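Need tokens for this chain, all 201 residues.
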Amino acid sequence: MKSTTCFSLFLLSAFVASATARFVLDINGDPVENNGASYYLLPHLTAHGGGIERIRTGKETCPLTVVQSPLEVVNGLPIKISSSLRSYFIPEDSKVRIGFSSPPECASDPWWTIVEGLPEGPAVKISGGYESTVEGWFKIASVSSSPKLNNYKLKLLFCTREEGSCRNIGLHVDGKGHRRLVVTEKNPLVVQFVKAASSSA
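Here are the structure tokens for all 201 residues:
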């Protein structure tokens, strides 16, 4: 009886969250799943590069640096989004973790983090190998949406735990042409979520 009551309360909390929240939508207008399907992050405009992937930079022994592919025909690597909220889908502006579905073996976990003290400024990395990480969380916010055109523009932000302030995730092009994801006060990288084919079943 007790387990039945607990399960009922869980379903009720999930229903309340689903009924009141505005969810992050993928390119088809479907809610992005919480710790479920994998997605590609693609720029909302063509000829503005490809999807998000990882490379090895500096003294890294494996690819821990999160970048945008310069090739628009490249979808990048699938990622997953996770929220601690009891919701099947990701609400906009909620605290989330973002990570690659298949992280490199050297990573301590699959989730992205922010590393400070780098030439490009605070940069997005995969957890592992860096000590100067910033405590905080990511969130996903809507830039604009046009349901009739299947045009759902989103941006990523990083919020620091200490200050509680949030800044955009944008691009910094380094001397080698790598489009690194960084925390910035400037224009954000505007993206759309595209469900990975292996997750559509």
